[in-house]
Amino acid sequence: MKRTKLIALLAIISPYYLTGAEPSAFGAGDLNNPNPYGLTSTESVLLETKKDLNKVVIKSNNQANEVDSLRERIDGLQTIIESINSSTHENRLQIKSLFDENEIQKKNSNEYDQRVTKFFQENSDNIIINKQEIEKIKLQIAEISKIVDSINESYITKSEFNALVNDVNKFKDLVAKELKKQIEPKKSLYDGMSNGEIETKAKDLYDKKHYTESIKYYKYLIDNNYKPARSHYMIGEIYYYKKNYAEAIAYFKKSASLYDKADYMPLLMLHTAISMDETGDKNNAKNFYNAVIQQYPETTYAKKAEDKLNLIK
Known about the structure:
The protein is mainly alpha-helical. Helix content is 81%, strand content 0%. The protein contains eleven helices and no strands. Helix 8 packs antiparallel against helix 9. The radius of gyration is 74 Å and the shape is rod-shaped.
């Protein structure tokens, strides 16, 4: 408002000021000169008025700038206030929501407390029993703790435990091997051999006086019905030389019953007679000696039989 009045005053004074300020010769009375001179009294008054007006204009401009600045600050504050109002509204809504939620939780809490109370009332007997069971469990835990302490006292180190495990594993392997040996069929002495080869092996063992092994091969031939008469005879001979005369007689008798035309019959009959003689069966021994002499005269077998027969008489 003051600024408007000032502008109006300048509009009134300016014409006079401009006409009265016409410079004189050599610049005398020039009010626009920074250092005017030769001024009349009226010009001096105008000059002072001009200076005052300039001051007023400057002050007015400064005030206007301050007003504009204040308006900008007011606008900024207004914006802040509006933001605060908006935030306040949101906070109120959040507080109300929290309050409502709290009320719901209080209600739910009350219902929960009621349910818990009801549960305890309905299960009071079970609770007592459970407490008793808990006490029993505590006692058992105490006993277990004692056992654990005892175990800890006799605790073995990891290396000792590993050594024990290794020993157990070795034992298991040994047992497994033994079981495997028992389960697996034993390899036969005769695998891959023909009957003829087995007979040759048996005779070779007999010639070397490995009688026990030789008998095994001959019995195998008997079981396979390969030359059973000769095999029985050879076993009889083995028992004869081992002085097991009773067994010798049995095998000689079986051999003769299977085939009495064999080339070994003279020796079979002589050794049968001697075996009977050695076992005390003198009568049968005489009969066999005489049979050898009659059937195979002029032979070494007959001569041996005569010598043995003479000893009996």
